[in-house]
Amino acid sequence: MILRRVLPPVALGVLALLGWELLVQFAKIQPYLLPAPSAIGKQLALVLPGLWAATLATGSNALIGLIAGSILAIALALVASRLRFVDQLIAPVVAAIAVVPIVALAPVLTNMFGATSETPRRVIVGVVVFVPVFVNTLRGLRQVLPVHRDLMRAYAASNWQLTRTVTIPGALPYIFTGLNIASSLAVISAVVAEYFGGLQNGLGSRITSAASNSAYPRAWAYVFGAILLGLVFYAATLALERLASRRR
Amino acid sequence: MTAVQVTGVTKTFTTKAGLVTALDDVDLTVEKGEFVSLIGPSGCGKSTLLRLIADLDTPTSGVIEVFGKSARQARLDQDYGIAFQTAGLLPWRSVAANIELPLQLHGVDRVGRRQRVAQLIELVGLGDFARSFPEQLSGGMQQRVAIARSLAERPELLLMDEPFGALDEMTRERMQSELVRISAETGAAVIFVTHSIPEAVFLSDRVVVMSPRPGRIRKVIDVKLGDARGEGLREESAFFASVTEVREALHGAPATGTARGVDTR
Ligand SMILES: Nc1ncnc2c1ncn2[C@@H]1O[C@H](COP(=O)(O)OP(=O)(O)OP(=O)(O)O)[C@@H](O)[C@H]1O
Ligand SMILES: [Mg+2]
């Protein structure tokens, strides 16, 4: 069962790597265009301790930003779903945040917090993550069926009981849709935020420095780390979703 | 003492198409322990009347008292149990957890909840489905869960909106007998909406016949079938006499046809 689900994508991956290797070897593609997987693998082995440290640095920024941004988004969505004026107040702000490009925000925040701080990266992740979580959560919280509202009113249930037993369980699938999107975005934005100066400890800064030294296989080794990190985040939110849908 | 007293109640809804008078100057008294059915064509305000009594909506004018209190106070005091026209189960809760919901909301302890839920599941014949989820049940089974839920706190007043609508004939007759037994045992008053004339006659002390546009009570028929409502009752001539009386009231005159939206089975 598990074998049948895992085997095809793994086989596809191996096949793709093989094709890639052959393509680079036989078409004589230059490393600055596309290095061979074998060359990347060699670099991967060489930089492994550094890669691990860089992945941890970027990963913790992504995680902290993701958690903070999501908590804020869910909390605000809860308030907005209950209070109309808050909803009207927040809607334009969310629309504005949704179109803020990281490229614009990163240099400004780096200047604000100083070049030795992790904070600007975490703030960027938080901002990027906020929008999909907020929008999806709010949509989910608005799904309460009239008959369920009537039922809870008939039971003279408090607002909190309504929220706890009907609104939130009903919104969970929507919240997790938002979190799934957010988890990938968190890693991407944590990596990209490092392109704009500041500390040189994460995947993004390693990729830029390797690339500017023409060490392309090394740059790709770090890219590989970023991909793995993204997959870990995605799998973790999926697992969390499974757990939550069983418990609600 | 009266369970429900409806006096001069009018309910209008403002819609895009204009003003809809769902109920027009309705008076109704239901005594404690009495079983009253509401019957009438679709759109005559049966559900609306039930919702007003349950304080899920407020009358445009008129007064509703439940056990001598305002409808709102009765709701806050949890004086009634209700089953809606749609089952209204929470899809992420199992059958047992759905039935448990009112007990949980009102702070009944775990042991008490488990015992009561087990009784109720047996009562509605869903013993094998306690851990199933609503989407795994047929419509009729979902209705039975909703009925069990409405009975959970042994209410003095039961408000039921076509609860047997989605049941097959056999289950329906069994549930009818159960309901008669439950209301007799607990002494609960029942207000029961139905589209079936025989069902209304079989279950009720009185049948309230309503007419639409605007929603009014056309006639209240006393069904004097005595307390022993065995299965044999369905065969008796007194039963058929009442069925005929209700049918004629529905049509406004002795009639040969069938009122629209009313099931004469
Ligand atoms: N929330 C509402 N807004 C506007 N109109 C409504 C609303 N609720 C009910 N009505 C109208 O009031 C009238 C009575 O509706 P109600 O649901 O009480 O009928 P009913 O007798 O229960 O019908 P059925 O047998 O089909 O369930 C209908 O004309 C309906 O369109
Ligand atoms: Mg109705």
Question: What do you see in this structure?
Answer:
The complex is a heterodimer of chains A (248) and B (265). Chain A has 248 residues and is mainly α. Chain A has one domain (56-247): MetI-like (MetI-like fold, Orthogonal Bundle). Chain A is built from 9 helices and no strands. The longest helix of chain A has 46 residues, at 37-82. Chain A is globular, with a radius of gyration of 22 Å. Chain A starts with a helix and ends with a helix. With 265 residues, chain B is an alpha/beta fold. In chain B, helix 3 (95-105) packs across helix 4 (110-123), helix 3 packs parallel to helix 5 and helix 7 packs across helix 8. The radius of gyration of chain B is 18 Å and the shape is globular. The interface between A and B is medium-sized, with 19 and 19 residues. Bound molecules: adenosine-5'-triphosphate and magnesium ion. Adenosine-5'-triphosphate (ATP) binds next to strand 1, strand 2 and helix 1 of chain B. Magnesium ion (MG) binds at residues 46-47, 85, 161 of chain B.
Outline of chain B: globular
Order of helices and strands of chain B: EEEHEEHEHHHEHEHEEH
Which fold name is given in CATH as the topology of chain A? MetI-like fold
**Arithmetic mean pLDDT of chain B:** 87
Number of domains of chain A: 1
End-to-end separation of chain A: 27 Å
Helical fraction of chain A: over 70%
Instruction: Assign the CATH class of the largest domain in chain B.
Output: Alpha Beta
Number of helices of chain B: 8
Give the full name of the CATH homologous superfamily of chain A. Answer: MetI-like
Q: What labels would you give this structure?
A:
heterodimer; A: 248 residues; mainly alpha; MetI-like fold; 9 helices; B: 265 residues; alpha/beta; Rossmann fold; 2 domains; six-stranded mixed beta sheet; 8 helices; 35% helix; binds adenosine-5'-triphosphate; binds magnesium ion
SSE map:
The complex is a heterodimer of chains A (248) and B (265).
Chain A: H1 2-27, H2 37-82, H3 84-99, H4 102-113, H5 119-141, H6 146-154, H7 159-193, H8 203-212, H9 216-247
Helix pairs in contact in A: 2-3, 2-5, 2-7, 2-9, 3-5, 4-5, 5-7, 7-9, 8-9
Chain B: E1 2-15, E2 18-31, E3 35-39, H1 46-53, E4 61-66, E5 69-70, H2 71-76, E6 80-83, H3 95-105, H4 110-123, H5 139-151, E7 157-161, H6 169-186, E8 189-194, H7 197-203, E9 206-211, E10 216-222, H8 237-251
Parallel strand pairs in B: 3-8, 3-9, 6-7, 7-8
Antiparallel strand pairs in B: 1-2, 1-4, 4-5, 9-10
The structure holds adenosine-5'-triphosphate and magnesium ion (MG).
